[in-house]
Every structure is written in C-alpha cells, then in structure tokens.
Amino acid sequence: MRSIHVALALLLSASPCLAQDKVVLVIHGGAGGLAKKSLTHEIDKRYRDALALALMAGHKAIKSGTSLDGVEAAIKTMEDSAVFNAGKGAVFNRDGRQELNSSIMDGKTRKAGAVAGINRIKNPISAARTIMEKSEHVFMIGEGAERYCRDQGLEMVSPLYFWTDSAWKELLQAEASAKRKAGALLKDPPHYGTVGAAACDSDGNLAAGTSTGGITYVGPGRVGDSPIIGAGTYAENAACAVSCTGKGELFIRQTVAVDIAMRVKYRGDALKKATDDVLRELPKIPGGAGGIIALDRNGNVAMAYSTNCLFRGTITQSGKIWVAIHEE
Ligand code: ASP
Question: Domain extents for the chain?
C-alpha cells in the first residue's frame, strides 16, 4: 500500500498538471475598452465564442502535443478570428499601416522567439515559434524576418489580408480625436485587444505566447511589450508562464512578465499575489494599464487587470471551458 502511495506521489510531482482536473491553458484577448453597459448580447457572444474556439484548439493541441503546441494553436485561432487586435483584425498605426508583433517562450528550455514589424506572415505567433526553433536568433524584425519565415515555409499573405473595417474605423476616430486634442489617445487608448496564452502540458512543461497589432495610432516603427521576452511574455518551468496586454511602454519599463516569475521563483510568492502586486505597482494611467494572465505547473491561474475588463478564459485537462469579460 505504501509503495502505491509513494509511486502516486512521484507521478504527481513529475507531472503536476495531471493531478485533478487542473487548468492546462489560460488565454486572454486583450483588456479594456468595453463598458459593461454597452455589452450587447451579440458582442458578448462574438467574444465568448472566439475565446472558446481558441481554448478548444489549444486544448486539442496540448493533448496531442506540447504546451508550445497549445499556445501556438490558441493564439493562431485568435489571430485568424478578426475579433482581436492580432493577425487579421490588427489595429493601424499613424501611417495607416499594420505592424504585427509576437513572441513565444518555452518554459522547459527557456528558448524564445520573437518577431516585430511584420505584415506579410499570416500567423505572427508561428513566425515567433519558427524563429525560436529554426534560427540561431531570438528576435527578428521587418522584411528580414518575413523573408526568413517565407523560406521556412510559413504561409504568406498580402498586407491587405489583415485589414478589417472595425480597426480602420478605430484609426479614423483616433485621428479625429488627436486633431481635437493632441496625444489624447495615447494617454487613454480605447482598447488593448492583444491576445496571449499560457499553457502546461502533461509533462509539466510550461509555455507562453503573445501576439498583437500594437496600439491604434501609435507612431510607425513603435514596438510595445508583446514581442519582448520578459516584458509581455515569459515562461520558465521553475516559476510560471505569463502573457500581458496593455500599455506596452509601462510593461517594458517594469519588465512585468519576468518580474512576476522571479517573485514566484526566488521569493516563493503565490502566483496570484505576484501577479496582483506587479500589476498594482504599474503607474496609474487613465483607463488602466492593462491585464495579465499567468499559469504555473500546479494548475494555479492568475488573471488580473486594472482596465474595465479582460477578455479571458481557461480550459481544464478534461476540457471544461470558462470564459469571462467583466468581473463575474
Ligand atoms: N501591449 C500591446 C502594445 O503595447 C497592446 C495591447 O496589449 O493591446 O503593443
């Protein structure tokens, strides 16, 4: 009897995510911008369906593969949905162009890949993963990154593929508002619609990823936190997996994702406490700085935001889905 207990304890500690029906994937689709009172049934359903679809795709990929597969599949689904500010549906900069950024990190090896300033690779998250796995680099940008990923066989598209009516309208509104009051939108952006995921597979390996079009009406060439390892994305088995959304400049300066992980790793902070504390310590800006999701090997989840909402969801090992937008 005792040997069964010992064997079970060893199994559980070797594969933390196997114990009970733990969360294996947590995702976000950005923070803020949608007041509860303006949430119609139709909008609510559109976001919840898109989040659930991403969770199911990620879950399937984790079951047959790894946490990296789960992160990539979930983010790819959100990039393809045209609902979020990533891939199709990305926002426009001041020049009326879309510059896509993404990153991914493997918690087991701490290998990472990132890409910025691209608009010809259909799925930026796959570009980040390709750079991580196939190149000798971590971070590639612009035309060179696109050429490299095309040569590696990634699906390429015309920049027009990413265009959506709603993102274009958001740019026009931002332009009009900036004309009325210079810089107003940069202080209080309407919506951080970046997407991200953190996953744990049956071997207990963590992974995290983030993908974005940046922020509407920012200057051409501006890069936020999403493709910056340690700022918008971080994963390390000994700590946790983190993905952020929000005003990128603040998340870069405070190296938010790695700060959370190091509090967990070196100080033994609970995941939720570390996430809440780091978010609270960000400078206060109108509308709130943003949101964070995090997951550890034991299936502990943290989802924190200082905006009026965070599009978010989780899925357990057995496939139980939970999604939310506002406080519930
Ligand atoms: N963090 C992203 C950026 O600053 C924006 C977002 O989260 O939507 O580029």
Answer: 2-111+162-324
CA distance 157 to 185: 30
CATH class held by domain 2-111+162-324: alpha beta
Q: How far is the CA of 247 from the centre of ligand 1 (A)?
A: 6
Do residues 51 and 27 lie in contact, with contact meaning Cβ atoms separated by under 8 Å?
yes
What is the per-residue pLDDT across 191-213, written as a single tens digit (0 to 9) for each? 899 999 999 999 999 999 999 99
Global model pTM greater than 0.85: yes
Instruction: Assess whether the C-beta atom of 192 lies below 6 angstroms from ligand 1.
Output: yes
Catalytic residue among 194, 212, 245, 314: 194
Q: Are 113 and 133 in contact (CB under 8 A)?
A: yes
Write the pLDDT tens digit of every residue in 119-158: 999 999 999 999 999 999 999 999 999 999 999 999 999 9
Closest ligand 1 atom to 248 CA? 4
